[in-house]
Queue: 2 jobs
Job 1
Amino acid sequence: MLHSDFESLGLMPACLEALRHEGYVQPTPIQVASIPSLLAGRDLLGCAQTGTGKTAAFALPTIQRLTENHIKRQPRKARSLIVAPTRELAMQIDVSFGAYGRKTEIKRACVYGGVGKVPQIKAMERGVDVLVATPGRLLDLIGDGAIDLSQVEIVIFDEADRMLDMGFIHDVRKIIALLPKKRQTLLFSATMPSEIDTLARTLLDNPVRVDIEPEKPTIELISQSLYYVEKGCKRDLLVHLIKELKVSRAVVFSRTKHGADRIAKTLHIAGIPSGVIHANKGQGNRTKTMEAFRAGETPVLVATDLAARGIDVDDISHVFNFDMPTEPETYVHRIGRTARAGASGTAVSFCDTEEKRLLKQVEHLLGNPIPVIKVHPFAGVRPVPTEEDLRDAMFEERSKERMRGRSQGRGRPSGSARPAGNGSGDRGGRSARPSSPADGAPRRDGPRADAPRRDAPRRDAPQRDALRSPAAPDSRSRPASSCNREAGNDRPRPTAPRSSDQHRDAPRHETPSRSSRDVRSVIDEITGRRS
Ligand code: AMP
């Protein structure tokens, strides 16, 4: 099917010319599956995500049918209506209609909240062929008498599941009630929860159903990595990585609006041009920010998940998950912003102690652990100890104890455990190695500050090197860092795993009675937090 070209799908010359202009050579699977049925006037239920080419799949047949129907535009009336959950998506769809309809006489308007109504009312005065709208503003303008839906020939609901999530379902129902009975209806949704299924049953008449799996190969082109890092140190690490890695265009995802603002501020102070978008930013501001990001004037965009929805910018080299997402599927959406159109990309995630549960959910969804890059303490960045760090630390502590025991040797009070070393070549402190598993310690080297983790991917060696560069000295000898400013507290936050984890993670032969205070001091030591 992929070998069909656009012409064989039945598209008219004006559309084919626009596609040539866009540089599209082959239709995507959703375009192949949808365009002929839509040109024939069928209703459609599309289970597909952004990035599959679904906008062209519905825009091209809409433009063609509107052109071929020759129905005149009437004041305040729209011949087709596309309802989208976010302003960004609405604007993007409007731009796509502009591009695909460049060789036609199609007139468009796009209405969304957060900006003045007057230009939108003016745009509707003489009627349009294509109206793209977010639900709230659309109902508002209908209430004002500025928009009339009674002549809509084609209606498209895009990202219906997102509309449901955002509480727009009642608005959607109100809009449906205002549409003429005779019309062509399309419903797109990335997922099909039961509410969407019910809506589809009432809304669509004998629809064609198109299911497009998210493009898995794209994910495979993404180099994913993970840093365990304390919450208060994430911003320092982000600045460091943006400077060290070859970041040409990056999106940094923050879970909260406030967090996004703080990240942008940190980047600004570090001299990294960035823009920030979230729901509290005015629409004018968001549009400007997106334009600057697209044009490459600000190579970094800090965004919340909701605001970033529908953002379609090519050539994003890096995605940073500054916070782990609460929904594991969001991780896939986020990292899918990079590695588009066959390009490769890099996704870097930060995970603090409190986010380990969220990370587990993501890894469960992916079916694989995300390769960990061991962050070495540098310039104020302290890592969160991983389970392996903890085991290493336990081992080192036990080695030291043995060394102490040995040096006290004969003076040791009776009843103290005497280490079971072989008594030779065993004086090297940290590098001491137990001679046999009977020592009560695993047979492995003690932790070395520069030892790469076994699970760190080889391809990321340059990143590890960057973190080990002379500019990033081991901070064991450094004073307490500036981390944890976020909490408004200069004292480091506890980041060690809970004591239940400690016992679970500890090797079986470890003495279970080791006090958590000992463990804490070991963790403090490996994280450079010596008091
Ligand atoms: P969408 O899923 O509509 O957001 O589209 C995702 C991206 O794919 C957009 O950048 C489109 O411009 C692009 N695109 C859509 N159809 C094609 C095609 N047939 N060939 C190449 N790129 C396409």
Job 2
Amino acid sequence: MPKAPDTLPTVKISPRGATRLKDGHVWVYRSDIISADDVLPGSLIRVTDHRGKPLGSALYSSSSQIAIRMISHDPVTDLPALLRQRIAAAIEYRAPLVTDTEAYRVVFSEADFLPGLIVDRYGDILSLQILTQAMDADPVREAILAELTARLHPASLIERVDPRVRELETLPPRASGLLQGDKSATTFTMNRVQFLYDALEGQKTGAFLDQRENYAAAAHYAKGEALDVFCYQGGFALHLAPHCSQVTGVDSSRPALEVADQNAKLNQTFLKGKEIEWIEANAFDLLKDYSSSDRHYDAIVLDPPAFAKSKRDLDAALRGYKELNLRALKMLRPGGILVTCSCSYHVSQPNFLEMLASAALDAHRTLRLIEVRGQAKDHPVLLNVSETSYLKCVIASVRY
Ligand code: SAH
């Protein structure tokens, strides 16, 4: 039953927490809570400042450091109905922005005003992730499923569980699996490239959808002999292949490379009969080897996993990025193209560009920036919530 706003539990926050909200952020940390008496885990709450002035409605977590995630400036009475409206709005928002793909992110948590919910679409399969106590409540789950089904008519809906997140949110363990329907694998097309998708396998929620527009941009500039380092299931390599004379993909995960090879087979026509070579190796070792044995390329993609999981890791992460970029730059021929990425939120765009400038100096290469890019538009960036912006993709050219 919807609750009248004045019967909602109230959480009082400190002036520091209130200032953060006034600056447009949507999180309040536990250390900024003054009182949260009798508030149940995952509740819809009323937030007030230290004097009791209302600041809006939010979802509460009893265990996360992010204790409060704001959902509205106004009183909210019927949470499932509000969430359904927001899912519909997220779908509508993407209609003019997302083209040339059957796979994209449908809901991106805070950036779609649905904190704690991620939904990806792979053709007629939807994959969802629930990251907070509030989104895990039964009436909320039912509302999410009902709206997604009514709007997108998926053949099946699958839940990908991150056990660590459930533990942090003190939610009971749950297995990943089908919530609706029985189809768990499909093929989808993105930028005219076909990909296999198996909802019950793979990293994250499957493919790296955030790189979709960067694949197309990289393909636009790449030529000659190309190396795709950290290639996973071949996202960049497959896009580059029609434009290049030779492409090699490198990853340390054999299962990822097996899918990459199947993806290449699926795209024979698109690849114009070109074969891609897949190498299972540690990228750091391979780049060290190759750069000291005088190998050269015309295009190199670097798309490593996030090196900085927290702010503490920043220096070590930047050293890791620099080593990779330095070695890649040494291997690029004059006029060669570097496509270098970082998906670590804690490495800012200025940090990343500074690292690249320093790698270029040490590699004795002069670089010109062609494009400084971010995540695809189906992963919106909420301007006042910097955490929603995490992907950097720089495309640069080595001076002739
Ligand atoms: N470029 C890919 C996504 C890369 S994700 C795409 O667009 O789909 C990061 C990849 O790095 C994963 O596939 C992971 O298996 C791989 N990886 C992690 N550490 C590695 C290492 N030391 N050497 C090589 N590959 C590594």
